[in-house]
Amino acid sequence: MRMETLVAGLRILMVGVLLGVSFASSFAQERGEVQQERFHEYTKLLSPEKVYLHTDKDVYFATDTIWFSGYVENASYNSEFEESNYIYVELINDQLYRSWAEWNRYAEYEPSVVARAKIKRIGDAFSGCLVVPEMNSTGRGIIRAYTYWMMNRPAEYMFYKEVELTNPMKDKLVDRMTERNVRDKKEYMRLGEEAPFAKQPRITEVKERYDVQFLPESGNYIAGQPAVIYIRSIGIMGAGESVFGEITDAEGNTVTGYRTDSSGFGKVLIPSLPQGKLYASVRDSRGHEGMKVQLQGSLDAGATITGTMNVSSDVSYSADDMLHLQIRSSEVLQERYPFVVLHNGSEIYYRKPVGKELEVISLRLGDLTAGIHSVSVMDFMGNVYAERPFVVLPDGPEALGVELDKERYGNREKVSVKIKLPQEMCDSTGNLSVSVTDAGIVENWESTNIKSYMLLKSELGGYIENLGWYFNGDVPLGERMTKADMLMQTQGWRYYDIQDIVQGKTPAPYFGREYRQTLFGKVMNPLRLSRKATVSFIAKSINFTAMGQVDSGYFVLKDIDFPERTKFIVSAIGKNGKSTSHTPILQDDYFAPLYRYPQKAEKVKYTPEYGKVVENIYFTRDDGQHAMAFELDPVVVTTQRITPKNSPCVIPNYPLKREWYRDSSDMKPYARNYTLGQYVQETYSQVRYNGHDKLFGLKITPATRMSPGSRTGQVVIFVNGMELFEGEGYHILNSPVANFESIVYVQGLSAAPFQRARAVRMNETPFYPDPVLMVRLKPHTRTDLVPYNVSSASPMGWQKPVKFYSPKYDNAEARMKKNADNRITVYWNPSVKLNGNGEAEVSFYTSDSESCYRVEVEGRSAAKQYHYIEKFIKRSPNTGNQKRN
Question: Model pTM?
Answer without folding.
Answer: 0.87
